[in-house]
Please model this.
Amino acid sequence: MDILIVEDEAEIAGLIQLALEKEGFSCQSCRDGLAALRLFQELQPDLIILDLMLPGLDGLEVCARIRQKPGTKDPYILMLTARGEEIDRVIGLSTGADDYLVKPFSPRELVARVRALLRRSLRQGGQHQIHRTQHFIVDVEQRSASRQVSSDRTEELDLTTLEFNLLSTFVSNPGRVWNRTQLIDKLWGSDFFGDERVVDTHVARLRKKIEPDPANPTFIKTVVGVGYKFEDAATS
Model:
């Protein structure tokens, strides 16, 4: 697994790299936001450890740009910062970070977070299934999804790994109400460390890609005080 470390403090970057390389990970590092974007395109890492406060572009902007154009890989992003206020965590997660670790931290905790993130890659893999509803077809084995736009037109959906997992979960259980905890357990398992509200971020992104009007969703409905459910008649 390839990891990109984006940290402007050389001593911290070195400690992170040493801890991860001891565990067998391949690491490269840089110290500013612009270099991070360049290396991301070149390396296509599996995971990025991203400091919030960076010269050039800050971590929030780097995260947002990567999520807008993920490239051939849609990496997991672990945001690293000395700022621990709740609003900072919410902002970081809203830009697309998968987890949030506040300095100071132990190398052991960092490695555990990294391993937990990398284990998230599709737990549904190996299930050779195709899920169909009235407007959607999700092929789990081929990792493809499409939406019926009109009676004579179907469009392929350009989804990130997490968005595909989420849609697959919804489409395979139309009408079921999911709370955040259930979705996290279904997609990522009990090793999830992050804020449960990251689910809301991924739901919002998925809505933008599949809903005719994301502000008034037709398919992914919010169940107030509970969570979400997917509404679209299943087909045989």
User: Anything to note?
Assistant: The longest strand covers residues 144-150.
